[in-house]
Design goal:
By secondary structure, the protein is α/β, with parallel strands linked by helices. Helices cover 39% and strands 13% of the residues.
Length: 353
């Protein structure tokens, strides 16, 4: 297909595709699906070889969030049957992180429910970061605490955080359809706040909430403009007790097309297969490894994931290999995660790394 050949060439040059090209990927037929996967796979292998980075979530505080994000089981008014607990102690969080590191995780993601952290919360999380680093100095630490206030990202970086996650989730035009307690611009501002403090930005989307193809392209292009180092792609888990319960708009084939589109638009970033992959991709999960170069290992925030051993076997069976701690995730021309181990060696991050 001329479309796919052109997208591969653009991906190898880090050139942005057009909106029409991105929409055309989502509109390809089932008969063309393997061709789409193969083309996007060429771009993935060019920048990342056959490496798969493993990430592990530690839920520091669960439930009772004052925000009303319609997809979230921890939202205000949620009737979902999920665990609710206050902050884990630093030692407890470090112990939880150890399980992921033992399974091969290269990054630990420390997540807490809520609109955003107070200064006291930042201090608490800073102590947790220090506890994780004391046990696992080689691991990357990402914080995900909601909307940031001025100066909080800098404090997290000084405590030893490498990255900050805050997803855009959907297009700006339809953001009000999934949340009314904050705006799309608030999320963009938090990603920029993290970047300005020298943290590696992690920001992605959720597919399957009823969005159009145009919405998907809009949010991925917005992410490309923000230029995060990693882009997690989540697929909706329609929890009972939330406004999106019973929402099943995806098929495994559409999920693969979405991942391919993200890879073409963001060719040289860490594209991470995140929440919902087990229920939405199902038996096609191994094909997704040809599009993404990063996955979460084990469970998510309030839902169970595939067993960690099954993930490792899937990676091996598909002909990929787990990325080691000694390997830089990103290509040399990107200056985000390549600086992580320099800090470990005692070198301060550049101010805008």
């Amino acid at each position: 297909m001329d479309l796919l050949d052109g997208l591969v060439e653009k991906g190898l040059r880090r050139e942005r595709p057009t909106r029409d090209e991105a929409l055309a990927v989502l509109a390809t037929s089932d008969e063309e699906l393997l061709d789409v996967v193969a083309a996007a796979g060429r771009v993935r292998r060019h920048w990342f070889g056959r490496r798969v980075k493993l990430n592990y979530l530690v839920n520091l505080k669960s439930g009772r969030c004052p925000e009303d994000c319609f997809y979230c089981s921890q939202r205000l008014g949620s009737e979902a049957d999920v665990l609710k607990y206050t902050w884990l102690k630093p030692a407890e969080a470090a112990e939880a992180a150890a399980a992921g590191v033992a399974g091969g995780a290269k990054r630990v993601c420390l997540v807490a429910s809520g609109r955003g952290p107070t200064d006291r919360d930042v201090e608490r999380v800073s102590r947790t970061i220090e506890a994780v680093r004391e046990q696992h100095p080689e691991v990357e630490v990402c914080a995900c605490l909601g909307l940031l206030s001025t100066g909080q990202a800098e404090r997290l970086r000084k405590a030893g955080a490498d990255a900050y996650n805050h997803n855009l989730n959907t297009s700006e035009a339809t953001y009000g359809d999934i949340c009314t307690t904050h705006e799309f611009s608030d999320r963009v501002a938090t990603v920029k706040e993290a970047q300005s403090a020298g943290l590696s930005a992690c920001s992605g989307l959720i597919a399957g909430m009823g969005e159009t193809d145009e919405d998907l392209v809009d949010v991925v292009f917005a992410l490309r403009d923000l230029d995060p180092d990693s882009v997690p792609v989540n697929f909706l888990i329609p929890f009972d007790g939330t406004p999106l319960a019973g929402t099943w708009h995806l098929t495994p084939r559409r999920a693969l097309r979405i991942l391919a589109m993200v890879r073409f638009v963001c060719p040289d970033v860490e594209v991470r297969l995140a929440g919902g992959r087990e229920v939405q991709l199902r038996s096609l999960q191994p094909l997704a490894l040809h599009l993404v170069n990063s996955i979460f290992l084990g469970d998510y925030l309030t839902s169970e994931g595939q067993a960690g051993q099954a993930d490792l076997e899937m990676i091996t069976d598909a002909g990929f290999e787990v990325e080691g701690a000694e390997t830089d995730t990103l290509p040399e021309h990107r200056d985000g995660l390549v600086t992580v181990r320099r800090r470990g060696a005692g070198t301060e991050l550049p101010p805008n790394a």
